[in-house]
Amino acid sequence: MKKIYLLSVLIFLIFACENNQNNLFIGDWIEDMPANKHFVQGISLNADGSASSIGMATLKYEKWNLSGDKITFSGKSIGNGQTIDFSDTFKIIEITPHTMKLEKNEKYQIKYQRKN
Predict the structure, then answer these.
(1) Which one, of 45, 47, 98, 94, lies nearest residue 72 by Cα?
(2) How buried is residue 88: exposed, middle or buried, by Cβ count under 10 Å (0-12/13-18/19+)?
(3) What's the CA gap between 14 and 28, in Å, rounded?
(4) Which of 43-47, 54-58, 98-102 has the lowest mean pLDDT?
């Protein structure tokens, strides 16, 4: 009986920690673009795993998912009369309540600031 109780507590703690990590990502994130401060683009991440684009008419985010130290965004790319499904996975370099830094292929990094 004690083993079942201990196992139940451990499972609860694992899911609680995972949900807390997800909560850190939820919100509106604006890309840090020093070269063009007047242009605003980013992504809105919702608690239910849905996502939406901020300031991007041709890249429509629809979903996001965490898996270990990776985050995956998916949606539709719209342009030149055609719509293409996309899925893009990034390594999470840093996540704080105010900043998110992602990396792709160890060459490309993108930094976001949480929108208030």
Answers:
(1) 45
(2) middle
(3) 26
(4) 54-58
Q: What gap in Å lies between CA 87 and CA 73, rounded to an integer?
A: 6
Residue 112 contacts residue 30 (beta carbons within 8 Å): yes
Location of structure tokens 């999470």: 92
Tokens of 53: 């684009």
The amino acid that residue 39 corresponds to is F
Domains of the chain and CATH, by start: 2-114 (2.40.128.280)
3-class secondary structure, 9:
helix
Q: How confident is the model at residue 32 (pLDDT cuts 50, 70, 90)?
A: confident
What the block records as the tokens of 1 is 């009986």
- The pTM of the full predicted model, rounded to 2 decimals, is 0.77
